[in-house]
Amino acid sequence: MTALARCLSLATVATLLAGALAAQEAPRLTGPTPFTRETPAPPMQRQLTDDVRRKRNYPDQPPLIPHAIEGYALDLNANKCLSCHARKFTEQSQAPMISVTHYQDRDGNTLGGVSPRRYSCLSCHVPQTGAAPLVPNTFTDMDALVEREPRGR
Ligand code: HEC
Ligand code: HEC
C-alpha cells in the first residue's frame, strides 16, 4: 500500500467511526420496529399563547404566532387572520399590521390588497410550543456573532 492509499483508508475508517457514533447519539425520528407495530400517538405539545411577541432569530424571519389560533377559519372563503391583521382592521383589533411585503406580488408590485402568495398565513407563520428540540441546535444569534468580533476592524 502506498502512503497515500494508507492515508485515505485511515480517513475512511475515521469517517465511518464518527458516523456510527453520531448515529448512536441521535434520538429516533422514525417509528417503531417493526414499522407495522402500533404505538399510541405522542401527546400534542402545548402551544405558547401568552400574547408575548417572540424575538425573531433574523430580521426577515416570519414572526411566530404568540396567541391561540384554534378554530380560526383559513380557506377560500374566509381568512380569520386578516380580520385582525389586515390594514383596515388593526385599529379596532390592535394587532400588528401585515407588513408591506404581504401586499407585494412576485414582480415587486405593491397591490391594494393582500397578495395571493401571502394569503395562506400558516404556511409561513406557526405557533411556538414548549417542546424540547429533537436534535441539538447550535444556532447562534447574529448579534452574538457580531459581539464576538474584535472592535476597531
Ligand atoms: C382577534 C384578533 C386576531 C386574530 C383573529 C389573529 N391575530 Fe395574530 N395577533 C393579534 C394581536 C392582538 C397580536 C399581538 C400579540 C398578541 O396580543 O397576541 C397578534 C400577533 C400576531 C403575530 C406576531 C407578530 C409579531 O410581530 O411578533 C403573528 C405572526 C400573528 N399574530 C399571526 C396570526 C395568524 C397567522 C392568524 C390566523 C391564523 C392570526 N394572527 C389571527 C390579533 C389577532
Ligand atoms: C410566504 C410567507 C408568508 C406568508 C404566507 C405570510 N407571511 Fe406574514 N410575514 C412573513 C415574513 C417573512 C415576515 C417578516 C418580514 C416582513 O415583514 O415581511 C412576516 C411578517 C408578518 C407580521 C409582522 C409585521 C410587522 O411589521 O411586524 C405579521 C403580523 C404577519 N406577517 C401576519 C401575516 C398574516 C396575518 C398572514 C396571512 C394573511 C401572513 N402574515 C402571511 C412571511 C409570510
What does it look like?
Helices cover 25% and strands 0% of the residues. It has a domain at 82-123: Orthogonal Bundle (Flavocytochrome C3, Chain A, domain 2), CATH 1.10.1130. The protein is an all-alpha fold. It is extended, with a radius of gyration of 24 Å. The protein binds heme C (2 copies).
Give the termini distance in whole angstroms: 49 Å
From the spread of the alpha carbons, the general shape counts as extended
- Percentage of residues in strands: under 5%
User: Uncertain segments of ≥5 residues (pLDDT<50)?
Assistant: 17-24
Largest sheet: none
Number of strands: 0
Overall SS class: mainly alpha
Rg over alpha carbons: 24 Å
Classified in CATH, the superfamily of one domain is Flavocytochrome C3, Chain A
**Would you identify the CATH architecture of one domain?**
Orthogonal Bundle
In DSSP terms (H or I, runs of 4 or more residues), the helix count works out at: 4
What is the typical, i.e. mean, pLDDT?
A: 84
Helix content: 10-25%
Can you write the helix and strand succession as a string? HHHH
| CATH topology type of one domain | Flavocytochrome C3, Chain A, domain 2
Name the bound molecules.
heme C
The top-level CATH class of one domain is Mainly Alpha
